[in-house]
Amino acid sequence: MMWNHSGHLEAFLGVPCAGGILHTLNLRLHAHEIAAIANHARDRFLIIDDVLLPIYEKFREIANFERVIVAPYGCGSVPHGFLNYEELLAKAGDDFVYPDLDENEGAAMCFTSGTTGNSKGVIYSHRAIVLHSFAEGLVDTFGVGQHDTVLAISPMFHANAWGVPYTCTMVGARLVLPGPNVDAESILDLIVQERVTMACGVPTVWIGVLDALERNPGRWKVTETVRIASGGTAPPLSLIRGLDRYGLRIIHLWGMTETTPLATTGRLKRHMLEWPEEKQYEVRAKQGWPAPFVELRVMRPEGEAPWDGETPGELEVRGPWVAGNYYESPDQAHRWTEDGWFRTGDVATMDAEGYVKIVDRAKDLVKSGGEWISSVDLENTLMGHPAVKEACVVGVPHPKWQERPLAVVVLKDGAQVSGDELRAFLGKSFAKWQLPDAVVFVEAIPRTSVGKFKKIALREQFADWKWE
Ligand code: ADP
Fold first, then answer.
1. Quick check: 468 pLDDT over 90?
2. DSSP three-state, residue 113
3. Is 39 left (phi over 0), alpha (psi -120 to 50) or beta?
4. pTM above threshold 0.90
5. Is the pLDDT of residue 114 over 80?
6. How far apart are CA 419 and CA 425, in angstroms?
7. In the structure, how many helices (H) and strands (E) does the chain have?
């Protein structure tokens, strides 16, 4: 249970090489959830940052660790009763014999971030991590090489910071770990000071970064283009376009904790470089095509959906770094087909070029009078309005239509716009029945533990909404 820093990286490598399984704990969860997850995984040793001990105090009574080892990087001292991580390392001899491990043994473990419900655990084998690292080195995915300086903003407990620490170690790239300082300004300072060439993080991080760049003209000078791996939710097209202006080029990826996580990237194909700019942006906003060895298909009750970019179905995925089950959760076996395809719960389309577009999570689609409305398309279009900083659309119960879309909007500093103006703006791209029936302005949209918009919280907040 640590922030992103060098001690955590040592654990990423040392624990699996010693024959253990590294289970990264999500420090942003409720203390009781952390304990429940650690107990479910039967974690034996806890390595924890000194600054996180107050969280540990909240769950120490219900957790079952044999030993608690404290990394003294924040306050520099370790309270009585705990082991000191640095002292243990200093005392260790150099006669440790590394076990000869089978590549199919577990190396690491993560729980899903729990956006739509309870977190579920996934174990990554050594084989999966090694193959996944190879894939992230490919030019058509992240293209990480020894010349790179990579800033891992995604927490190391969120799908292993998307595998980036392993990939960087494998290829010899320079890895920059920001510790707890992941606000937009600190990120931009690091990008400039460390001459970062690639960074990874969820779109809400990049929305904040773009906002900071726009509010402070000339403060950060990015001299070489930085590749920005953005995944976890779909980045609005306006964000991709906006960051391009500052030399931050989004590589869109789709993945899941269950897929280690890289499964697709939305890179342009060679012949698309000739296409008009507008069309290129449309492609880059899609989730893209699968990395080598990853198979994808969009399934409907009657079989595979046609590759027409229109017919939606459930996205299924299969491959050497796609989990084959959830840790000790037999009730979840239905998520896999008999021949090993994982049912993602994401609704998607596939176009003639083989690019996947995520329409929505099945649970987030707004079910209105027998029709489905994509919350993602609405919110990403709203975020293209010059007055809007953040927008989130959720389905709210409706007496006649079952659900209707409600838009929750955060405006940019000093900006003003009415709900009707925003609805008229959306009306240029959507049919009338798809438009949110209400627009609510708020100071902030709640986030999940990994920085996604927390739609569950908004649905609860507006469950009793009185439609006019
Ligand atoms: P959780 O499901 O709890 O959020 P993960 O962090 O593993 O846990 O999230 C995986 C899910 O995130 C995917 O199933 C998908 O719904 C969403 N996701 C990931 N990348 C993208 C993307 N590029 N565009 C849209 N949705 C994405």
1. no
2. coil
3. alpha
4. yes
5. no
6. 10
7. 14, 23
Choose which residue among 258, 289, 346 to substitute to test ligand 1 binding: the one with the highest number of ligand atoms within 8 A of its C-beta.
Answer: 346
Here the tokens at position 347 are: 């609704």
At how many degrees (to 10) do helices 375-382 and 419-427 cross? Answer: 110
CB atoms within 10 A of CB 86: 15
- Vertex 143 angle, CA 307 and 159, to 5°: 75
174 DSSP β-pair partners:
149
What amino acid occupies position 117? G
Catalytic residue among 275, 307, 372, 465: 372
β partners of residue 69: 47, 83
Return the amino acid letter for 156: M
- Is 115 touching ligand 1 by the criterion CB < 6 Å? yes
Structure confidence by residue, pLDDT tens digits, 170-222: 999 999 999 999 999 999 999 999 999 999 999 999 999 999 999 999 999 99
* Residue 336 among the catalytic residues: no
What token pair was written down for 37? 């997850």
Nearest residue to 252 via CA among 272, 217, 227? 227
Question: What are the structural domains of the chain?
Answer: 1-101 (3.40.50.980), 104-362 (3.40.50.12780), 365-461 (3.30.300.30)
Are the C-beta atoms of 448 and 458 separated by less than 8 Å? Answer: no
- Is 112 labeled as catalytic in the residue annotation? yes
Cα–ligand 1 centroid distance for 254 (angstroms): 7
Q: What's the pLDDT tens digit per position in 262-312?
A: 999 999 999 999 999 999 999 999 999 999 999 999 999 999 999 999 999
Q: What does the DSSP 8-state code read for residue 322?
A: S
Question: Does any ligand 1 atom lie closer than 6 A to the CB of residue 113?
Answer: yes
The sign of the torsion formed by the CA atoms of 178, 183, 186, 188 equals positive
